[in-house]
Specification:
Blueprint lengths: L16 H8 L5 H12 L7 E4 L16 E6 L5 E7 L6 H15 L15 E7 L20 E7 L6 E12 L13 H11 L12 H10 L7 H39 L6 H24 L4 H8 L3 H5 L3
Parallel strand pairs: 3-4, 4-6
Antiparallel strand pairs: 1-2, 2-3, 5-6
Helix pairs in contact: 6-7, 7-8
Amino acid sequence: MTKSKKHLGKYVDPRTDFGMKFYFGREENKILLIEFLNSLFEGEKIIADLKYKTVEHDGDQEDMRRVVFDLHCIGSDGEIFIVEFQQLFQEFFKDRAVFYTSRLINKQLAKGKKGNDYHLPEVYFVGILEFDMNGGSNVALPRETDRPYFYDVALCDRHTHEVFYDKLGYKMVSLPVFDKQPEELETIMDQWLYLLKHLSTMDKLPSFLDKRIFGRIFAIGEIGKLKEEDLMSYEASLKQRRDAESVFNSALRSGHAKGKAEGRQEGRQEGRQEGRQEERAKADAEKRESAVKMLENGFGVKMISEILGLTVEEIEKLK
């Protein structure tokens, strides 16, 4: 196998599972994760060091084992961060975020300890999302939509908007919504998000990115420097990502196209009823085929139903 495969680009794509672990999940590269997290906290917290914990949570359902890292971050206090990288739309994502942080909080209470000592460390959930949290796919949105790409969520009073509990927070970035151009990158966080989204298409470190922070990524990320087994793992991870994107986007296009086609057919003359029925049958078959592929790629039943217009019962029968 050659390492000069042009279709792979020059640098490992951080948006793949392999890429996220390659850049951020190795002890020797943890400075990159520290810098990235600090950019999201924007001075609210300054992480001096961090320790990796379990990659997966034991006992989770198979479709929920998607937490990439559990981190014990050492800063001014003893913050704990969950970092999850999500490649495509995930059903009940907000529920999962709350679920993970709730479990982390519960683990901080010493078992068998008497008294009312409920002093807890700070817990944060950090999510790098490959979908629009307000609904939608990984397809780039038009700029005029002006949707937020960074969510900084805290537990607040509904009326005064004052923070009720300042030791629990959720910081989530939606990469598809982030569409800033190089001349618009105002903060280090902007530079990080631009890099995450575009690194796989770059051929060198551009002048508009801070060399002191991002130089290491370009130094270690060259695909030509990967070991043979890492190259094979990366190709498999990249293929998985591309296949999932293709299935999702094809399903979106199919759902929209079939809806329009059916709308046009309804206005035709009664004499073409038989043709309309055949078209509908063909469209339904294509929808079911798309649904099967989406199930195989891990999409949730509810999301498939919304995209393709099939009922939940119809999709359940395809499993």
